[in-house]
C-alpha cells in the first residue's frame, strides 16, 4: 500500500511514520522546502517523543520520503491546518484543505481512498470535498472512497495514542467507511468506530468543545471565588468527591489548535443555537486578561520591576505554542506595562533566558504558565537568587514552595491585594 500524506505537521508527520513503520510506502508532502529538506536529511522539525527514531527507521528501510508535490498512490491523507477565519464567529478556514484536495486530484485513480484528517466544520466532507472529486468524473463510494477520520491524540503521547485510541472512521458511504477501517486497521489496536462523515466531523468538534466548556466552568469559578474570598481549587477538590462530578482544572487560558479553535467551527454553523459553547469560549479567551490584572496587583503591591514568565508552550513538555495563552499574557504585559518581562521555556527556541537560573536571577515575580516538569521542583538555591521571591503558579504544579516569600495559585488569588487601577 502506498500512502501519500499532504501536510507534515503535528499530525501528518506522526501518521505518516506510523504507516511507514507498519510496512506502507509513504510519501509525505509539504509546501515547506525547509520541512522537506529536514525530513529527508533525518531531522524532525517538531518536538514529539519517539519521532526521531521512527524517522530514522523509515528512511533506512526506504519506507518514507518527503516531497514538495503529491504523486500517484493508493491512499491520500490530508492533514493540513484549519485555522479560524477572520469573520464574526471564527469559522473554519478551509483554504488549505481545498488547496490540498486540488493538489491530489491529478493523481487520483479509480480505487483510491481519500482521507481527511484535518479538523473541519460539519458537512465539509460531503458538501465541499465530495463535489471537488466528483467534478473530475469520479463517483464517490464507487470509484473513489472518501472518509473523514479525525485525529484524537495528545501531544507528547501521539505515537502511543495513534495505535491504542479508538478511531472514528466517517465514510461518505458504507463502502467508504469499510475502506477506511481496512486502512487504519494496519496499525490501530483501538476500536474502529464506523460513522457517517458528518457525524465524525461533529463528534471531533464536540470532543474538544466538551473540554473547553468544562474548563470555562472552572475558570469562571476562579473568578467567582476570587471575588468572594474562597479557594477555588479547594472547591473543585471537594466537589469532585461527588461520584458524578468531575470539574476540570482551571488555568491561564486555553491553547493548542484544538480546544481554542474547534468550538468556533460549531458556533459559526449554528450561532443562534450554540450560545453556551460561544460563552465558554469568551470566558476562556478572557483568562489571560484576568491573569495579567492579578500580576499587576502583585507587582504594584511589592513595588517590583522584573517579571519572569516560566513557560510559553500551551501545555507541558512540548514545544507547541499554537494559541498559547502564555504568549497572549506576555504580549499584554509588554504592551501595557513598564516592567522588565523575561521569558524562559526549555522547549521553545525564542524565549529570552537560556536557563532557569538566569531567568529567575534578580526577578521580583515568577509566573508559571506551562506545567513543564522542570518547573515542578524549583531548587531553593535558584529561588534565593530572586530579588523578591514571589511565585504565581497558574498551573498549580510547583512542589515545595516554602522558599518563596509569597505563593499564589488560582485557588488563593483572593489573597492578592487589589491595588492596580489599570485595565488592559
From TrEMBL:
Listed GO MF terms = NAD binding; oxidoreductase activity, acting on the CH-CH group of donors, NAD or NADP as acceptor; oxidoreductase activity, acting on the CH-OH group of donors, NAD or NADP as acceptor
Q: Which UniProt keywords apply?
A: NAD, Oxidoreductase
> Which biological processes are named by the entry's GO terms?
polysaccharide biosynthetic process
Query: Which branch of life, at top level?
Result: Bacteria
UDP-glucose/GDP-mannose dehydrogenase C-terminal domain ranges (all copies): 308-400
Q: Does the keyword GTP-binding apply?
A: no
- State the family it belongs to: Belongs to the UDP-glucose/GDP-mannose dehydrogenase family.
User: Record's NCBIfam families?
Assistant: NDP-sugDHase (TIGR03026)
The record's listing under PANTHER family reads: UDP-N-ACETYL-D-MANNOSAMINE DEHYDROGENASE (PTHR43491)
Q: What is this protein called?
A: Nucleotide sugar dehydrogenase
Amino acid at each position: 500500500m502506498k500512502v501519500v500524506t499532504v501536510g507534515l505537521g503535528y499530525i501528518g508527520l506522526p501518521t505518516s511514520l506510523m504507516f511507514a513503520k507498519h510496512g506502507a510506502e509513504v510519501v509525505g508532502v509539504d509546501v515547506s522546502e525547509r520541512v522537506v529538506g529536514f525530513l529527508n536529511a533525518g531531522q524532525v522539525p517538531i518536538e514529539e517523543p519517539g519521532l526521531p527514531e521512527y524517522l530514522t527507521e523509515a528512511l533506512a528501510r526506504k519506507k518514507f520520503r518527503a516531497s514538495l508535490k503529491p504523486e500517484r498512490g493508493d491512499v491520500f491523507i490530508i492533514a493540513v491546518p484549519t485555522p479560524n477565519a477572520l469573520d464574526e464567529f471564527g469559522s473554519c478556514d478551509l483554504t488549505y484543505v481545498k488547496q490540498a484536495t486540488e493538489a491530489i486530484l491529478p493523481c487520483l485513480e479509480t480505487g483510491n481512498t481519500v482521507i481527511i484528517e484535518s479538523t473541519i466544520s460539519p458537512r465539509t466532507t460531503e458538501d465541499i470535498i465530495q463535489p471537488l472529486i466528483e467534478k473530475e468524473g469520479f463517483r464517490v463510494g464507487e470509484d473513489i472512497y472518501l472518509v473523514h477520520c479525525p485525529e484524537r491524540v495528545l501531544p507528547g503521547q501521539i505515537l502511543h495514542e495513534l495505535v491504542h485510541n479508538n478511531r472514528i472512521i466517517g465514510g461518505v458511504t458504507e463502502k467508504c467507511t469499510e475502506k477506511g477501517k481496512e486502512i487504519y486497521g494496519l496499525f490501530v489496536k483501538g476500536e474502529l468506530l464506523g460513522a457517517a462523515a458528518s457525524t465524525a466531523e461533529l463528534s471531533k468538534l464536540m470532543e474538544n468543545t466538551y473540554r473547553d466548556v468544562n474548563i470555562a466552568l472552572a475558570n469562571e469559578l476562579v473568578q467567582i471565588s476570587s471575588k468572594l474570598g474562597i479557594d477555588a481549587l479547594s472547591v473543585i477538590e471537594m466537589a469532585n468527591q461527588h461520584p458524578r462530578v468531575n470539574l476540570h482544572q482551571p488555568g491561564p487560558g486555553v491553547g493548542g489548535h484544538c480546544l481554542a479553535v474547534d468550538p468556533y467551527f460549531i458556533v459559526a454553523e449554528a450561532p443562534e443555537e450554540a450560545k453556551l459553547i460561544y460563552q465558554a469560549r469568551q470566558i476562556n479567551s478572557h483568562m489571560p486578561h484576568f491573569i495579567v490584572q492579578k500580576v499587576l496587583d502583585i507587582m504594584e503591591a511589592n513595588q517590583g520591576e522584573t517579571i519572569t514568565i516560566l513557560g510559553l508552550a500551551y501545555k507541558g513538555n512540548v514545544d507547541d505554542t499554537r494559541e498559547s495563552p502564555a504568549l497572549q499574557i506576555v504580549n499584554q504585559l509588554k504592551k501595557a506595562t513598564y516592567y522588565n518581562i523575561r521569558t524562559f521555556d526549555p522547549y521553545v527556541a525564542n524565549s529570552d533566558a537560556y536557563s532557569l537560573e538566569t531567568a529567575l536571577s534578580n526577578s521580583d515575580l515568577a509566573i508559571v504558565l506551562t506545567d513543564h516538569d522542570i518547573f515542578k521542583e524549583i531548587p531553593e538555591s535558584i529561588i534565593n537568587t530572586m530579588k523578591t521571591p514571589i511565585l504565581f503558579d497558574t498551573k498549580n504544579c510547583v512542589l515545595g514552595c516554602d522558599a518563596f516569600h509569597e505563593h499564589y495559585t488560582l485557588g488563593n488569588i483572593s489573597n492578592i491585594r487589589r491595588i492596580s487601577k489599570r485595565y488592559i
